[in-house]
């Protein structure tokens, strides 16, 4: 995985300390904040591996985990956020803090926001915590100078040199806008009959109410939350909104905002076409730890990069609800459209009870995401079992 360089280069005392001293400074800070600190990092214990954490913070009955990264050259990526979240779930901690002396990637910041249990502290914030703000000035990395640079007088160029990738991006965006336009027309056509049918139903319901019967009070909702769903028709209003906003941003000279709305259109089109987001892969170990935290789950193992086998205790947990709960537990880790969950009852005593229940996290039973390969988990396929039963009943 290629790392992104920090946008700013810190040239101060904190940037010069070694990892051991960096951990010690943070340990001292948290002790002063009222925590009982257990320093478990490899730099302090002398062990080769630290298990992914450097400090454990205790206060009353709560436990926080801290991972320290003295990274001055590169940004900390989202993989470290996912790994730390998996450790939080495995150790049963309340939350965790990921500290760097530099910066985080945008994907790491988004992953931490979605998790709700990971706090990120970058170089600016950690220096403020340690009281080093007044002595620190972020500086750009030093630039090499040519021997005759002072004698060089740049000539004005008649036109800026265009990037080689500019035509490609222009073509891609044009295709996305064209696709969105077609999708808007299709979605509007589909929505014409829906509201009309709804109005007829509402008229019939209103007539029944006016006949003298009071409407029944709404029943208490016992519906559990569902995972994100893909493969749905595109929302024409949302697409029109993004397209209009992108055009206005381009006219106003804000290409960054225009690109965000074009990105949103592309994401909606991809989700409607059941295409997983390759920019948000799910870390396997974190996913296993999250799945094991679901009620009734005994263990979880990856069969390949897409298929996750989940073993449950009893037939009461071999159902669609368990698949939903596992998928909800995986959502903070990345895009679950690339995950198929297979639930098996390890206590089953017959072939029917031992049959695997399978489904993609964001699709209905029987549907597959784009580029997803079907995988037969059971030794005896369901079609063979059905055929055998039919032969026995003759």
UniProtKB/TrEMBL annotation:
The keyword Transmembrane helix applies. Residues 15-130 form the Restriction endonuclease type IV Mrr domain. The chain crosses the membrane at residues 168-189. Residues 207-234 are annotated as: Disordered. Keywords: Membrane, Transmembrane, Transmembrane helix. InterPro entries: Restrct_endonuc-II-like, Restrct_endonuc_IV_Mrr, tRNA_endonuc-like_dom_sf, Type_IV_Methyl-Rstrct_Enzyme. One of its GO terms (molecular function) is restriction endodeoxyribonuclease activity. It holds the Pfam family Mrr_cat. The keyword Transmembrane applies. GO terms for biological process: DNA restriction-modification system. This is Restriction endonuclease type IV Mrr domain-containing protein.
């Amino acid at each position: 995985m290629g790392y992104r360089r920090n946008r700013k280069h810190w040239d101060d005392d904190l940037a010069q300390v070694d990892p051991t001293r960096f951990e010690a400074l943070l340990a001292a800070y948290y002790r002063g904040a009222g925590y009982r600190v257990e320093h478990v990092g490899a730099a302090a214990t002398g062990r080769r591996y630290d298990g992914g954490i450097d400090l454990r913070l205790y206060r009353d009955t709560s436990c926080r985990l801290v991972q320290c990264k003295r990274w001055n050259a590169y940004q900390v990526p989202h993989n470290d956020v996912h790994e730390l979240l998996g450790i939080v779930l495995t150790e049963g901690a309340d939350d965790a803090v990921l500290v760097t002396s530099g910066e985080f990637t945008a994907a790491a910041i988004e992953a931490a926001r979605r998790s709700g249990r990971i706090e990120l502290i970058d170089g600016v914030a950690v220096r403020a915590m340690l009281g080093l703000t007044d002595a620190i000035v972020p500086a750009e990395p030093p630039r090499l100078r040519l021997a005759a640079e002072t004698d060089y007088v740049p000539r004005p160029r008649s036109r800026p040199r265009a990037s080689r990738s500019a035509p490609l991006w222009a073509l891609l965006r044009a295709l996305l806008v064209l696709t969105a336009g077609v999708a808007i027309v299709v979605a509007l056509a589909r929505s014409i009959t829906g509201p009309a049918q709804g109005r007829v139903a509402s008229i019939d319901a209103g007539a029944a109410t006016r006949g003298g019967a009071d409407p029944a009070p709404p029943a208490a909702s016992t519906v559990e939350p569902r995972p994100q769903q893909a493969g749905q028709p595109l929302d024409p209003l949302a697409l029109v909104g993004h397209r209009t906003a992108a055009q206005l941003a381009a006219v106003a000279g804000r290409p960054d905002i225009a690109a965000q709305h074009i990105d949103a259109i592309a994401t909606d089109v991809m989700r409607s076409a059941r295409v997983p987001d390759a920019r948000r892969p799910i870390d396997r170990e974190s996913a296993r730890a999250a799945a094991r935290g679901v009620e009734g789950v005994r263990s979880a193992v990856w069969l390949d990069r897409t298929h996750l086998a989940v073993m449950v205790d009893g037939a009461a947990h071999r159902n669609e609800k368990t698949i939903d709960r596992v998928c909800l537990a995986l959502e903070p880790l990345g895009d679950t459209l690339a995950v198929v969950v297979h639930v098996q009852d390890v206590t089953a005593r017959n072939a029917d009870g031992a049959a695997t229940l399978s489904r993609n996290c964001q699709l209905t039973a029987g549907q597959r995401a784009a580029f997803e390969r079907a995988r037969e988990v059971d030794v005896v396929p369901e079609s063979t079992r059905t055929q055998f039963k039919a032969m026995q009943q003759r």
